[in-house]
Design a protein that fits this description.
The structure holds two protein chains of two kinds. Chain A is 23% helix and 18% strand. Chain A is of the alpha+beta class. In chain A, a hairpin with a 5-residue loop joins strand 8 and strand 9. Chain B folds into two domains: 97 residues, Immunoglobulin-like (Sandwich); 249 residues, A middle domain of Talin 1 (Up-down Bundle). Classes of the chains: A alpha+beta, B alpha+beta.
């Protein structure tokens, strides 16, 4: 542990260290991390352990690396062993520590356990959130891991929505990991090390980098903008609103799958934006399409961003109008999406868009009705859904003896 | 693309190793002499002694309970040192593990769930660091293998060069891939001899400005791209001359550089690297598309190293041995799908999805194989 002993956090004089001075180290570490309840200051660590997984209600970080894996073994014990190994690595990395025996200091003739590119970087509010896709429960009619009966009814196969042009190579996956951090290198390091630990058990199916958050779960901060230049997620569920989270985000034992109590369902959509045609659209039309003004983000006909929208003042096909809870029987989701740009598409156009991520208690009452409603969205002329995934994110890891997926594989 | 008859029967060898593993486990056997006991019941985990000496330690695990159990040895932070799953009620298995000084936990997991019942143990002292005679023996056998493969590749290349120089393009194409098999199996050794590798095996795209292109791939281009051997005959002669130089070098009493424990074990990993960066992508055989023959030969060469050291790996890191057994089997299975006659299909007919399956299998083997050198050096 010589390499790992010197954590990135300590090297940088992590702010928690001051709190620890004089206190019993080691045992106090987790509590010190947890005490950063708001988790806002860049560089700090977000507590990994808790009743819910971090990375859902956590204030949205600046960067994303999302990866979907296929499980390539039928050996249940091997899969569970990987989930344990992953949990240990995730707990270490979110605290800013190195994986396993560290990036240096091991046997000289062997490759180091940690790949090392995050050395010297602070924890950067890294969160790692795992989700299990429908195919983990049953693939091609096969119950590979004896968990078919445990598939929650809420983990639906998403229906086809009008306009979908889904690429199977950018969709699905047995397991998904969402890595969010304020430093892109920390997020990439996390996924890279998990993929490395997983070779032989899982293989990366697809992955997506996101460079800018498009939704915030902290209403008192500036609402971020998407690549169309509009504020997005003004009325998102706040990560501090326990009542709304209980009602719309966290799964409960009574919902049908007791192993999911405290978990949530993640819907991911890779939404390509037709940037060039959008940029040729008049300001009036852009604002009509969204139903908000561009600079302030005020709802149509009103003056401040947080004024309560009057739907009657928006066009019938305005994006905000169709997405609002009152249009969709009260359906609400917690959005955590990121903008992406993967170079150009070979035709001289930006390969860019929104990597949409939403958490909800039940996709049948969240994403699905909202997306159905958005079939009439004026914005559809400028976007196309090209990738898709839905995953059951289990409850949080309770402590050092617990691991991701324990409740599912118990 | 014919695989010569002396080609390693990989599947058979893997199966043999598996049965050896079972035998080592000593299932249902008597407790091994000098082994510490672990009595695993439905609600207990008793360890015969708490203090151990660094080095190889052996445990005899007896399941006295009614549930199938498993036993783990954990280093601090629940890092798995070794594990044994599926120990049935009333059965006895042995667990051999290399432990360095430190604190560990033994965990019995009745029903194979949960964190298990834990017992602390302590290991003190420094492991005896003598030369392991088994590693010495493996080195000797590996050197013989290198010579054997060099001779094989020369014999095949003589036939290939004969057809090439006779202008028989069709026959030369048939003999091209198999002439490379011996070379591909021992490539890391060949690469250690200065500029021999680029002279024999350089790809056109990798040449530096002004560098003269010789070797197999030049002949490959003549056969598949130009469709004529005219004017290229001397490169066939040059290839044989260069391979003769390889033969001299590998037969030297004192190899320079020598084949060592580390170069041999890292060589296995390097062979998988070759597959991952050159063969899976189809860059190695840009004209002939015989990449899968090279792929197989690289895997054969890596497996040879592992096979020679398998008993040592099993003793020092049983989990790694299991991963490697599985990894080799999976790569072999993935390749099997593309067999055609005595060889393999042309790689340009292998689609993206199949290439992903091959790449995943190579990654799944390459990662544990990168730990071979460290495990043997422990």
């Amino acid at each position: 542990m010589s390499g790992a002993g010197l954590s990135r956090r300590r090297m940088l004089g992590y702010s928690g260290a001051g709190l620890l001075a004089g206190a019993a180290a080691g045992a106090g570490l987790d509590r010190a991390v947890s005490s950063h309840g708001d988790g806002r200051s860049p560089g700090t660590a977000i507590a990994f352990h808790g009743p819910h997984q971090a990375g859902i209600a956590t204030p949205v970080q600046d960067r994303l690396h999302f990866a979907a894996f296929d499980v390539v073994t039928d050996d249940r014990a091997r899969l569970v062993r990987l989930l344990r190994d992953w949990t240990a690595a995730a707990a270490a990395m979110t605290e800013g520590r190195e994986v396993g025996g560290g990036a240096t200091g091991g046997v000289a003739v062997a490759p180091p356990d940690d790949t090392g590119e995050a050395l010297g970087l602070p924890p950067s509010r890294l969160t790692l959130t795992i989700g299990f896709g429908p195919t983990l429960f049953e693939k091609d009619g096969k119950d590979r891991f004896g968990i078919r009966e445990r598939r929650p009814a809420a983990l639906v196969d998403l229906p086809h929505f009008p306009g979908d042009a889904l690429d199977p190579d950018r969709s699905g996956g047995d397991i998904a990991v969402q890595a969010c951090a304020d430093d892109p290198q920390v997020a990439v390091h996390a996924v890279r090390n998990l993929a490395r630990i997983g070779f032989g058990v899982v293989a990366v199916r697809w992955s997506q980098l996101g460079f800018g958050k498009t939704s915030s779960t902290t209403p008192d901060t500036q609402t971020p903008r998407n690549l169309f230049g509009f504020k997005d997620g003004t009325e998102n569920i706040a990560g501090t609103d326990a009542a709304l989270l209980e009602r719309h985000v966290w799964s409960a034992a009574a919902d049908g799958a007791d192993w999911m109590a405290g978990g949530s369902y993640l819907v991911a959509r890779r939404i390509r934006m037709h940037i060039e045609t959008w940029d040729r659209t008049s300001l009036q039309e852009q604002e009509d399409i969204f139903g908000r003004d561009k600079r302030e983000g005020a709802p149509a006909g009103l003056s401040r961003e947080r004024d309560t929208p009057v739907l009657g003042r928006m066009k019938p096909d305005a994006h905000v109008r169709l997405a609002r809870p009152e249009t969709n029987g009260g359906a609400r989701i917690l959005r955590r999406g990121y903008s992406f740009t993967d170079g150009t598409d070979g035709l001289g156009r930006l390969e860019a868009g929104l990597f949409f991520i939403a958490f909800q208690r039940d996709p049948r009452k969240g994403f699905v009705p909202i997306q159905r409603s958005l079939a009439a969205d004026a914005l559809n002329e400028y976007i196309q859904h090209v990738g898709s995934g839905v995953y059951a994110c289990p409850p949080g890891v309770r402590g050092p003896g617990d691991h991701w997926g324990r409740t599912l594989f118990a | 693309m014919r695989i010569p008859s002396h080609s390693l029967a990989l599947t058979g060898a893997a199966a043999l190793s598996m049965s050896l593993l079972a035998a080592c486990g000593g299932d249902d056997g008597e407790p091994a002499a000098g082994a510490a006991t672990i009595t695993a019941g439905d609600d207990k985990c008793e360890v015969g002694k708490k203090d151990y000496t660094a080095g190889v330690n052996q445990f005899t695990v007896t399941n006295t309970g009614s549930k199938v159990t498993e036993v783990y040895v954990y280093a601090p932070g629940d890092k798995i040192v070794t594990e044994r799953e599926n120990i049935g009620p009333g059965t006895r298995v042995s667990l051999v593990v290399q432990l360095s000084a430190g604190k560990y936990q033994i965990a019995c997991k009745p029903g194979m769930v949960g964190d298990g019942i834990r017992q602390d143990i302590a290991v003190t002292g420094v492991a005896q660091k003598g030369v392991d005679p088994r590693v010495e023996k493996a080195l000797t056998e590996y050197k013989a293998y290198v010579i054997e493969q060099t001779n094989a590749t020369i014999a095949e290349t003589e036939r290939f060069a004969g057809a090439f120089k006779a202008g028989d393009v069709g026959r030369a194409k048939e003999l091209y891939a198999s002439s490379r098999i011996g070379w591909e199996r021992i490539e890391p050794v060949a690469e250690s001899f200065g500029d021999l590798d680029p002279r024999v095996d350089a790809r056109e795209a990798d040449l530096r400005p002004g560098e003269k292109w010789t070797g197999w791939h030049r002949l490959e281009k003549a056969l598949w791209k130009t469709g004529s051997t005219k004017g290229e005959e001397r490169y066939a002669d040059q290839l044989l001359k260069d391979l003769g130089e390889l033969k001299t070098k590998v037969n030297a009493v004192r190899l320079d550089p020598p084949i060592t424990q580390t170069s041999m074990t890292n060589g296995a990993k390097e062979l998988l690297d070759e597959v991952a960066t050159g063969k899976v992508t189809g860059e190695e055989e840009a004209f002939s598309h015989t990449d899968l023959v090279d792929f197989r030969a690289n895997v054969d060469g890596a497996f040879k190293v592992y096979e020679l050291l398998r008993a040592v790996v099993q003793e020092r890191d049983a989990a790694l041995a299991k991963d490697l057994d599985e990894g080799f089997t999976k790569v072999q299975d993935a390749l099997k799908k593309h067999e055609k006659g005595d060889g393999y299909v042309s790689y340009d007919t292998v689609g993206k999805a199949d290439r992903k399956v091959l790449a995943d299998a190579v990654n799944a083997l390459g990662e544990p194989l990168s730990k071979l050198a460290g495990a043997v050096a422990k």
